[in-house]
Amino acid sequence: MRVLVVEDERLLADSVAEGLRRLSMAVDVCYDGDAALERVGVHAYDVVVLDRDLPGTHGDDVCRALVRAGGEAKVLMLTAATEVIDRVAGLQLGADDYLGKPFAFAELVARVQALGRRAMPALPPVLERAGVVLDRPRHQASRDGRHLPLSRKEFAVLEVLMRAEGAVVSAEDLLEKAWDEHADPFTNAVRVAVMTLRRKLGDPPVIETVPGAGYRMPGTSS
Q1: Among the residues of 179-215, which ranges form H helices?
Q2: Which of 28, 36, 165, 203 could join 219 in a cystine, given CB atoms 3.0 to 4.6 angstroms apart?
Q3: How far is C-alpha 196 from the chain's CA centre?
């Protein structure tokens, strides 16, 4: 899942982003509405965590722009105003969910994950391909009953490959979906992550390299 956090309280924004990254989400951060509009024009996000009261372009206008663009991004609006009339106004702008400040981080995570499921094709919480089991709610992976000690990035790459259900995933798509905007597209980060993931998965190999195209895993459970 790729998430954009838009919040002018920098400490809060960075804290939320780091917490989501621990769950293997690719997270970008910006601190004002103008930067948010730039980001959504460049990257395809699954969820945008959007503070309503932003400097520059107001959060309401950012939300309207997202709705007009017609993309797949779901909007979780944050605000210190928690009256019913405020929640209704935020939802009428086109936000998909609304969370008042202060909030519990666990609740924010649950709402982001719920919106992410709506943004992407419906899949069961536990994926299985060729003996590899990915338990997304528990953030655990195993193969043939053997626990896989995956890094956050390896977990994210494995999830993208398993969600593809046998389709080839290019290195560019992996970079877009599993890394944030600070990733250098000219590095070998994807190749290294796939290499270490293969090593941890063990034999027989389940990640196939398709020359000139990318990578794929079997598309059916076994």
Answers
A1: 189-201
A2: 165
A3: 21
